[in-house]
Amino acid sequence: MTTAKPRDSIRFLLNGQQVDLRDVAPDETLLDFLRLRRSLRGTKEGCAEGDCGACTVLVGRLTAAGLVYEGVNACIRFLGSLDATHVVTVEHLKGTDGRLHPVQQAMVDFHGSQCGFCTPGFVMSLYALWMETPAPSDQRIEKALQGNLCRCTGYEPIVKAARAIASYGSPDADPLRAERESVAQKLKELCDGRRIEIGEGGRRLTVPASVDDFAKHYAANPNATVVAGSTDVGLWVTKFMREISPVIFVGGLGELKTISESRGNVTIGAGVSYSEAFDFLSERIPQLGQLIDRIGGEQVRNMGTIGGNIANGSPIGDMPPPLIALGSTLVLRKGNKRRRVPLETFFVAYGKQDREPGEFVESVEIPLPPADAKFAVYKISKRRDEDITTTLGAFHVTLTGDGSVATARIAYGGMAATPKRASAVEAALIGKPWTEATVDAALDAYEKDFTPLSDMRASAAYRMLAGRNLLRRFYLESSGHPVVTVARNAA
Ligand SMILES: Cc1cc2nc3c(=O)[nH]c(=O)nc-3n(C[C@H](O)[C@H](O)[C@H](O)COP(=O)(O)OP(=O)(O)OC[C@H]3O[C@@H](n4cnc5c(N)ncnc54)[C@H](O)[C@@H]3O)c2cc1C
Ligand code: FES
Ligand code: FES
After folding, report:
1. Is residue 422 within 8 Å of 412, Cβ to Cβ?
2. Which atom of ligand 2 lies nearest, measured to the CA of 53?
């Protein structure tokens, strides 16, 4: 643990300059800082809730794999979380000899620049894509643009521009590549291993120096708000005007970002973002990779963490149901004490989790499903991309040698006040032959397990019907019957 005196400033690189800030409010967003304090108004405010991508900037940070740049939503990213990073805004883009940058030129030539609000955000998302994958597939382009909404629906020219960028220039000549080593060196120098403390009393922000430092500080200050990726907490500020200070920013703690595998278990640190977990999980549990692709847009996945999705206790968070179905265990820590709880018992009631004041989520342990297990996750939402779940079902079934159900773990989101197992449905399946007749007979048990609510996303009746139909779908798909799902527009 560090004994050095805390630092009272946030230091980062902004485009080509170093910024040292002592006056940082715990709830000040990067977007407000850029526009109001630096007059960098190329970065726009559209929705202020992480949905539209008009505020997209790149944030570069040092990782075990080197310097990585990711698109993020400046509207819900807090300034206090940016220590030792490189913030790149649209103003930083330039081509050689005073010409436009390849991304900008492609957007101009293909008429992708349709309105002043969305275009800078599209440019920044395409910039991140081009640096990572200069010649992307259409599927990759669509994924990169999931988090950028064009209200005039003019995606076609933007996609055409994206396909063409590589012919305008190579990312190797781009300053972010060419100057990578010197930027990485500067960021290393900014990482001095000291805790950051800014402000007094209630208006205080802390960036712990390490996980041990965080554990000690949070145990002593249990009323503080822990902020990881801020994709939930950001909205508490921008939409609900909630007071969140004092704040502890943990998004930069490398020790919470570890992923490992041992004896059939995968352990994901609470600070691992969706993007960081994607390759690892997709390789081992592809269904989770497919689900991650439907969480927010790229910017939200770059910021949002699996730990935050669990800790927020939302009944419609996407990760808890499949992790419960897989039999995951949560590692909670307070000070130096750790305890392990089955994830399914963590969610006690709406807004209430099995977490003591000053205790935090350190990691989640996920057992890999056996090779012959049947496992599926289905997310129902109004839009395919970047939409919150209406109902989500996760199914994990193993069979005996004679084709009967040996074990069944089924969990839902959006059907109750918490993510919840369908215990009565499971009981109706276990020991029975895995047949359509068994599944049909089990459907009545849904009434015992769930009493869903009606809200703006769906009626209770819709949720119940959809929830039951997901079990049918799981049975059919896992028994080799292809299921055709038809998207219909509401009349
Ligand atoms: C545009 C948009 C789209 C979204 N789409 C989806 C979606 O499709 N599916 C979905 O499930 N969610 C979605 N979300 C919600 C959000 O992205 C996720 O819940 C995300 O995983 C939250 O993680 P975070 O790191 O950003 O959490 P934060 O906002 O930093 O924190 C969330 C909560 O968890 C607490 N917390 C965070 N880390 C810890 C920890 N280690 N220990 C204890 N407490 C902790 C915080 O105090 C806070 O209460 C979306 C959000 C946005 C803005
Ligand atoms: S302003 Fe819409 S995502 Fe930030
Ligand atoms: S580009 Fe802004 S609305 Fe379409």
Report:
1. yes
2. 3
Torsion, CA 259, CA 82, CA 13, CA 130, rounded to 10: 50
Largest CA distance in the chain: 73
How is 351-371 classified by DSSP, letter by letter?
Answer: TEES--TT-EEEEEEEEPPPT
Angle between helices 155-164 and 119-132 (to 10 degrees): 30
Question: Which atom of ligand 1 is nearest the CA belonging to 306?
Answer: 21
Exposure class string for 423-434: b at 16+ Cβ within 10 A, else e: bebbebbeeeeb
Can you tell me the distance from the alpha carbon of 276 to that of 64, in angstroms, rounded to the nearest whole number?
12
Instruction: Round the average pLDDT of the chain to a whole number and report it.
Output: 95
Q: Please write the tens of the pLDDT for every residue from 391-423.
A: 999 999 999 999 999 999 999 999 999 999 999
Pocket lined around ligand 1, Cβ cut-off 6 Å: 49-51, 225-233, 270, 295-296, 300, 303-305, 307-309, 311-312, 317-318, 360-361, 386, 388
Pairing mode of beta strands 265-269, 360-367: antiparallel
Rounded CA gap, 471 and 464, in Å? 11
| Residue 363: both structure tokens together | 């990691």
157 lines ligand 3 (CB under 6 A): no
Strands 247-249 and 225-227: parallel
CA 312 to ligand 1 center in whole angstroms: 6
Q: What angle do CA 137, 139, 145 make, to 5 degrees?
A: 105
Please choose from 29, 41, 47 the residue to mutate so as to test ligand 2's pocket, defined by most ligand atoms within 8 A of CB: 47
CB-defined site of ligand 2, < 6 Å: 45-48, 50-55, 73, 75
Cα–Cα distance, 456 to 247 (Å, whole number): 32
User: What pLDDT, in 10s, does the model give residues 180-194?
Assistant: 999 999 999 999 999
Bridge partner list, 397: 374, 408
User: Strand pairing partners for 398?
Assistant: 407
Rounded Cα distance between 347 and 311, Å, is 9
- Give the span between the Cα atoms of 88 and 74, in whole angstroms: 11
pLDDT above 80: residue 153? no
Q: Which ligand has the shortest distance to the CA of 119?
A: 3
SS (H, E, C) 73-84: EHHHCEHHHCCC
Which amino acid would we find at residue 163? R
pLDDT tens across 62-74, in order?
998 899 999 999 9
Ligand 3: does its nearest atom lie under 6 Å from the Cβ of 154?
Answer: yes
